[in-house]
Each structure stands twice: as C-alpha cells, then as structure tokens.
Records
---
Amino acid sequence: MNDSVYGIDLGTTYSAIARISDLGAAEVVPNFEGDSTTPSVVYFEGPGSVIVGAEAKRTALSDPDSACLLVKRHMGTEYPQEFRGETYSPEAISAIILKELVNAANNTTGAVIDKVVITVPAYFGVQERESTRQAGVIAGLDVVGIVTEPVAAALSIGARSDQAETIMVYDLGGGTFDTTIMETREGAVEVIAVDGNRKLGGADWDDALVDLIIGKFVAAADLGDEDPRYDEEFMLDLRLEAEDAKKSLSRRESVTLRLSFDGTKAMVEVTREEFEAATRHLLAQTIEISRRTVELGTTKRPQLSIDRVLLVGGSSRMPAVKAALKNELGWEAQDTEFDLAVAKGAAIYGQAAVDEVLRTGDEAAPVDVAADAPGRPFLPGGSASLTVKNALSRSVGIKFARDENDAEGYISFFAHSNDAIPAVPEPITALTLSEGQTSVELGLYEQAGERESEALADNRFLKDAVLALPKPMPRQSPIEIAIRISGEGLVTVTTTDPASGASVDLEASVSVLTEEQVEQETAKVSTLLSRS
Ligand code: AMP
C-alpha cells in the first residue's frame, strides 16, 4: 500500500500540486515545464489529444474555440462544452487537469501516487464539492478528502505555533473574494466565520484599468468618429495588456502602454495612484466584507480579536490591499506564498488523513492517537494529530407549504451558514397537509444567493424523496424529520412516520452527474492522450 498523497489546489486560473517530502515538510512539485503552478487551461488539439497548462494557454489565444478556460466557475452545474465533436462535463475537464498534475508530479518524483486531497473555495456548496470529488474519480484518483482553500492555507502557514491564535485569511483571487476567520492551535484548526463575494476578483480590477486606459487613449489619439471599444479584437488584446500592466503596477509607480488602433498610435501612461483611485470602490467592498466577517465571528466568539491576517490569492499582491487593511481596520497583513500555500496545506491535510491521525468530528470512534505518540513534522507545531472543524458554507433547509393551497411553498432553514459542523440540528416535526394523505414529499434546498431567503427562487434544489405512508393519514398527522450534517457539509435527512415507523433517508451528497455518467466520462477521459 502506498501511503503518500498529493494535495491539489485546483484553481480557477492556476493549479498547483504538493506532497510531504521525505524530510516531513510540505513541498510543491513542479510540472513538466519546471513551473510550480500550471494554468488551469485545456486545449483540445485533435480527436483524442489534449494539451494542459502553459502551452494550452498560449495556443488558446490563436484558437479560442478549442480551449477551455475557467472551468471551475461551472463546477456543480450542468454545463457541457463541446470540443472537436465530443462533449465534456465540467467534471471531465477538471479531471483532465487533475490527471495532468498528478502525471507530471509522479514523473518528477518517480513515485506512483494516486491518492489526493483537492481544495475547494470556502463558499462551495454541497453540489460543487461533490462535483470536485467526481472530477477526481473521473481522473482515476482516490480522493481521500476535500478541504477548503482557507483551511489549507492556514494549515501550511497559519497554524504554526503552539499558542492559540485567531487568524483571518483574506483571499482575493482572479474571480472571487473570500474571507475566513479561524482559531488555530497546535494541530487544530476551527473555522469560525466565512464570507465573501463570488463575483469580485482580479478581473474587476482589469476591467477598471481597461476603462482608464481606453479613456486616455481616446483623449490622446485622433480617432475621429471611431470608437475602439466596439472592436472586439482590439479589446481582447487590451484586456491581456491591462492584466500585465496591473501586475507591473504592483511593483512600479507607473506603466506606459503603446496602443495602436486603425493605424493611429499613441502612448498611454497610467500611474499607480490613478489605478488605485479607479478601483477604490472595489477594494472598499473587500474591506466591508472583512468587517462583516469579524462581526459574524463576534456573534460566535464575543471576545474575538484577530491575531494575524494572511494574504492569499494573486490579487492580494496589489499594495493597496495591505494599505487598506492597515488604514481601515488597523491590521498588519502578512504576505504568504500567494499561489502555493493552498496546495501545501492540502498535502498536510491529506497526509494526516492517510496516516489516520485526522479528526473532523465525523469519526464513529475517536481517533486513537496515544498521548505520547511521536509528533509528525509535517503537522502544525509538530503535533501528533490534526483536528479540523469546519463551518457550513450555505444555509440548508426543507421546503414546506403554508397550507393546502400554497403550491409554491417556502424554505424553512434547519442549519445556517457559518454553523459549526459536524452538527445534528434539532429534529423537526412537520404535519401532513390534507385529509387521507398517503405520502409525504421532502425537498432539500441550499441557499443560492449571498443571503438566506425563504423564497424558492433564491435557493438551489438539491434532492427530494417521497415517504409512502402505509395507510391514509388524518390531516395534521406528525412526521418526524431528523438531520445530520457531516464535517464536510454533507447533509442526511431521515423522515419518519411515527405511527408506522416507516422512514426514508435522503442524502444530499448530490452530484450533477449520475454514476453511469461518471463511468462514461471516465472512459472518455482515459482515452485522451496528453502531450506535455
Ligand atoms: P489566483 O486565482 O489566486 O491565482 O489569482 C489570480 C489573479 O491574481 C489574477 O487576476 C491575476 O491578474 C492576479 N495577480 C497575479 N499577480 C498579480 C500581481 N503581481 N499584482 C496584481 N494582481 C496579480
């Protein structure tokens, strides 16, 4: 039995893979090209042949129709995409990336490892987590765990001392923003509060910079009636240039771009000050969310005070981020290995899982780690075991009707975002609606928007089940609903008719793909050849 495991940060724009070295430290394994990170881009070169990573990203520029970028945004949804006459689910495309990462890592290390832990954003709900797990299965991997990105970041950089600390992870990536407050102590991480905005990220800063640049270009160049904003190719090129310019502005006070449109050329200079002024409203949103996360944390821990703030995600490199955290919240935020911390933390989590010293609160029996067991160098503080306690990312509820005529219904939540998990919420007693009812239908829903809302449209349907009643029941007969939520956020609901003892289980480890589809996608992906 191989007892090694890879930790994989399956990112929206970049991915990375890590493992625990022979010396017991987490290390990132470079890919075939020697890079620590691999662009999460798949290029379908021809029937049965794909390219993954930097070369795929380069090739995608000249042939965008055969390339798949940003697939992570579609995880947990039905979003088939067709390339070279074949249809692929988001899970299958993610599987191609995972396979490439593992093959490259095995090639570099000379190992044959197929066990992995994959990270997901803290805001991922039940369906997206299950999709991620299925991507691993389609890639032929043994997924020993799914861990959230901030917990992974905390494991590799945060939870280091033997003192208890309260850590805030500020994660501003390419397309999303997340904040997480965690309590850490030797060998233990507990999530206290999670918040964020799924639609706020580096791409918004790019947009603002594009606007700034184009305004200056139009003012400087004599373009007559022509407006370059309507020229698709010009705008595509400008977006790429703007992202590079943005990165330069993290190091330099100003950048100069040479632009050309329809034969007219002009130089455009943008200073960091101008860029920061044009994006102040975006940064303000992250500060507001950070503040809100602290308020949320304070409701659970009245004495909460943040000891350390860790910057994660490529966009946290912008100097304005650190300055705003200092000026607005009084925090001295700390740089991390922005792109590598998450993969390393996943490796730590994975090694603890395969070594059977990981506790998530779900274990049937307590993990037996002797008090005098030797410490493990890869674990925070060199402790002997690792405890990770999560919080629920989204509220979960059941659909109820107000009365017989309420066809639409509403969602009654039994667990709320940020509740500590695993959890066994209070059982619910429901009442049958009509006289002579012979079955009860149970629909399980998850909060879809940023806030909890009773309206059906604001929630995402997860799964339903029907409990057949052995005989017609009088109106208002009680039905018992018992709920359990695992440490990974999977929900199990048991509905029982107390009169007959009949019951039905509903497990919301819901996935978009059926088992049969997973098999089909596995077969499809396994025949692809990757040219690296
Ligand atoms: P991630 O998803 O964490 O890899 O973050 C990618 C995002 O970080 C993209 O929007 C990049 O443009 C942005 N990014 C990477 N490096 C820098 C930098 N030096 N300054 C500003 N943004 C950056």
Note: The longest strand covers residues 459-473.
---
Amino acid sequence: MTDKRNLKIAIIGAGASGIMAAIKFREAGFDDLAIFEKASDLGGTWRDNRYPGITCDVPSHAYQYSFATNPNWTRMCSPGAEILAYFRGVARDHGVDSLIRYDSEITEASFDHHQWHLTSTQGDEGLFDVVVTATGVLHHPVYPDIPGRDDFEGDCFHSARWDDSVSLRGKRVGIIGTGSTAIQIVSEVIDDVASLVLFQRTAQWIWPLPNRLITDEEKELYRSDATARQAEYKRLTHRMNSNFAAAIVGENPDGYAELEQDCIDNLNTVRDPELRAKLTPDYKVGCKRLIMSNEFYEAIQKPNAALETGKIARFVPDGIELEDGTVQALDVIVLATGFNTHQFFRPMKVMGPGGRTIEEAWRQRNEGYMTVAVPGFPNWFMIGGPTSPIGNFSWLLTAETQFAYVLKLIERLQQPGVSEIVPTAAATAAFNQAVRDRIPQTIWATGCSSWYIDASGNIASWPWTFDKFEQDLKEPDWHAFETA
Ligand code: NA7
C-alpha cells in the first residue's frame, strides 16, 4: 500500500455487516477506520431482539461469516444470545471491537471537496474519504396504529424492546402480529403463561423446519476438521440460495411445488377445522417471508391458547377491544408488529455535492445502483442498500458479496488523480428498470402485504436468483461509474 493513497473510512453501524466490513477493510490494508455505533453495544438486530424463543430463521451453519465458521453452534437455528456472542467473539478476535465509537449516532453527513463531513450525537466527527453504511434492515420498530396504547394499564412493549423486568409466568398475555417473531414467542412461552391470545391480522404459511440440537459428535467433527465446517457452510448456503431462493423467485418450479406442499401438509396437522381455516392464508407460499417452525401449530392448539382474528379497535385499560365490542382482558401485550425496513440509514440527514439530500434523491422510491451506491452521492456505499436480497436469503452472504464489490470501487479511489467515484444516473436507471420489469414475475407480487413492500407499493427485494446476485456483483462494470 506504500504508493497508494490511504483513505480515511467511516463505517456506520456495528452490527453483522459493519463488523464484517471493518475486518475486510483491515485485511485489504486499510487502517484508518472508525465504526460509528448509535447504541452502547455491538450486534445490531441481535442486540435489540432478546424476546423469548428468539432464533435466526436461517440455519446457523449458513448464518455466519464465510471467513469465521463456528464449530460450536448448538442448534440447527441457534438462539439469539448465541448469535450475539458469535458476533462479539468475531469482532474481538479480529481486533475490530476497539474501532467502535459507541453512543455515536451519525445525524448528518455532507459532501464537499471530495470528502464526507460527519456529525454525530457526540458532535463533529471530522472528514472521511469514504462512508460505508451498515445500518441493517430489521432495525426501526413499527408500533401499530391502534389508538389508546397509553390507556392500557398493564405492561405493553415492542418485541424488539423487550422489558426484562416483566415476567410472563402465570399472566394473561396478548401478542399482536403473526410474523416470525410472534410465532417464535408463542411457541416458547405458551407453557408458562396463564393464557395467550394471538391477534392475527393475516394468516401465515409456516414451513416445518425442525430446530434440532447439533450433536456433540458433529461439533467435535467441526472443531477438528475445518474442511468439514466449510463444506457444511457451502452445502447450506447453496441449498438456501440456489434451491430455496430460486424457488421463491420463480426459477425452481419443482422446488417451489415441494415447498408449497410441505407448508400445506404442515397446516393440515391442525386438528380443529375451524382453527385450521383461520390459520389458512389466502395468498401464495413465500409471498410473505416464509416462517420456519415445527412448534407453532402445536402451541396454538394448547388449551390456554386462542387465535383472535377479529379486528382490533383500540387498547382499553383492561386489554384490547375488538371492533365488535368484545374485550380481551390482558396483563401483558407484546407488539410483535415488525420493522420499517425501508428507512435504511435515515433519519440521518445526508447531503451530496451542492446540498442535494438523499430525501430528494429518493422522493419517488429508494433506488440505488447494484444495491450499494446512489448517483449524486460519491464515495457513499451501502451494505444492504435498496433492492438487496432480503427474501429468505442469508443476510451475511449478501453483505459479504456487497462488500467485496464495494471494496473494488474504493480501491479505485487509491489510484492517482481519483478522489470520487459514483454510479452514473443512466446505469442506475437501467438497473432499476430491469428490477421493475422482473418484479411482477416474483412471488412477492402475487398479492399479499409484507415487509418487502414499501409505503408506495414498490417491492424492495432483489428479484432474481442469488446466483445472479453473486454473478452481477463479481466485478464492477466500470462504464457504470464516473470518477473525478
Ligand atoms: P413481520 O414479519 O413484519 O410481522 C409483523 C406482524 O405484525 C404481521 O403479522 C403484521 O400483520 C402484524 N401487524 C403489524 N401492524 C399491525 C396492526 N396494526 N394490527 C395488527 N397486526 C399488525 O415482523 P417480525 O418481527 O415478525 O419478523 C421480521 C423478520 O424478522 C422476519 O421476517 C424474519 O426475517 C426475522 P400483517 O401480516 O401485516 O397483516
């Protein structure tokens, strides 16, 4: 690196993607790095989500970094605390934890004279040649637009803001929402609570993934044989990306038919026809992010469980009132109502050259080039930008793929006479037109609401296979970029 320009780099976010980015930057020889983290701990969504029963919905031997495979995963889909400990351990072992500036939320970024000027909640953070945002997807909790929440006299909190001081044991518990989070909570707490009411607005398809324990023999093998560990990582990521995800985007019809049948068979294990009818979705398998559980249907059939499909009218002091006037009396209400996945790094105020803001650039819709960069915002790169693969893919492999591509762009900035790199408006328009042309063929466009769809109705996920994603991001098309 002696004759190359050493760049001053800011990474925003110390979750899974930010930690990976710092490690990879170091490996590539960049040493002037800072990671800004708004909270006082690392781990992103795994720090924020601590609800009972939390596991990843991607198998652990696939939901890990390719360069730090862990032999000690305890389950097929390991618990959240174990995943958080993994990220903590990797950050520490690679020495990037010391780069994190905690309690420093970047509030403003403005570009001038080839550099980004960052301001955080701590004050002026100075100038950086490059900014990489790693601000995650499942990050901004959505609170339901149901009136009267403050009127409720019991405890009420969002699943991503779990209140550890509240015990559910022996209580009358209400859970709003039927996403992956709610399904995991119900399955975990049903035997502890006096009664549980699950408020369902939309039924979900559930794939019966058994979350088996990984045996001591398997762990021993993975500990002693790094090749076996890598092989398991490759086998699972391939199965997810090439089979499962291809089925979801319409390129593996046999795989899709099998998936659909598995979900139908799973639903048919529900014994009471009335309950089964209520739990039957009216949209296609995979339209919403598919839920993995082989415990939920058993849990919701227990005598102390009830599925409430009546429309919620309001919170009342005693619990929740439905539109027909019935009141469900409750001690604790959990809002498992999901996340705003279209915020990206906002509310940060980002101003490109000439003061043009990201809000102006994204007025119509959030759009970038190849999921990582935005025209008019030089040297600003995103891990997990608009159109990233979010439809039941492994986020970590997505992040690594994006980072490898971004690194090639950043290395351009080390060449003499190059201080800025940015995608062209034309290449970005062509990319997004291709996305819009492909979207109608995907399962997500077949008629359901989901967190893949933004407020204007645009479907935000990569609409092709994961194999194509990896292929397209292998090497930048340099004609799609301008340098200065
Ligand atoms: P999700 O999957 O976005 O689920 C949120 C749930 O909350 C969903 O069932 C919503 O119903 C429901 N919801 C949201 N607002 C309301 C109101 N106002 N009234 C009733 N029900 C409501 O979030 P999760 O946290 O479960 O999972 C997010 C991801 O984390 C998941 O996909 C995995 O990747 C891990 P709707 O379906 O919109 O009718």
Note: The longest strand covers residues 106-112.
